[in-house]
Amino acid sequence: MRPNSESVTQAEYETLAALRHLLRRFLRFSEDAARGAKIAPQQYQALLAIKGFPRPMRITIGELAERLQIRHHSAVGLVDRLVANGYIDRKHDRRDRRLIHVSLTLRSERLLERLASAHKEQLRRSGPEIETLLKRLRQ
């Protein structure tokens, strides 16, 4: 990280701290919601990444690793657990057998719908405060 020639004011420190606190509260909400639905938080994040991958492309394990910011071998283990629990399917690419695409099952679609709805509601509640803090940082 390069030092910035512009110093940070006390008000900016307070804004950054408040923003980090709000983001962490949202992440805590997300983790608790996933556990309440009987799924590991990282598994929920993986399902969301798969569902949210731009269409018409299909996500590969490597792309999933990038989206989750984890190592490829960790993504393979995560995919293995999701397949074993019936949340996703995996298929080799027809043209390049090295690539493995993953997709949601009906079971995970239903679970993801419930969790995503709860997340949207939580963001509706905290969104205005987050927007205010971001505006302060842009000024």
Can you characterise this structure?
About 65% of the residues lie in helices and about 5% in strands. Strands 1-2 form a two-stranded antiparallel ribbon. A hairpin with a 7-residue loop joins strand 1 and strand 2. Helix 1 crosses helix 2 and helix 1 packs antiparallel against helix 5. The longest helix has about 35 residues. The two termini are about 20 Å apart.
- In spatial order, strands of the major sheet run 1-2
Structural class: mainly alpha
Give helix % range. Answer: 55-70%
Write out the CATH superfamily name: Winged helix-like DNA-binding domain superfamily/Winged helix DNA-binding domain
Q: How many strands, which pairing sense, and closed or not: the largest β-sheet?
A: 2 strands, antiparallel
Q: What portion of the residues fall into strands of 2 or more residues?
A: 5-15%
How does the overall form come out from the CA principal axes? Answer: elongated
H-E string: HHHHEEH
Helical run tally:
5
CATH fold description: Arc Repressor Mutant, subunit A
* Oligomer class: single chain
Give the averaged pLDDT, no decimals. 94
How many angstroms separate the termini?
Answer: 22 Å
Count of extended strands: 2
What is the number of independent domains? 1
Q: List the uncertain runs.
A: none
Rg from C-alpha positions? 19 Å
Can you name the CATH architecture?
Answer: Orthogonal Bundle
CATH classification, class level: Mainly Alpha
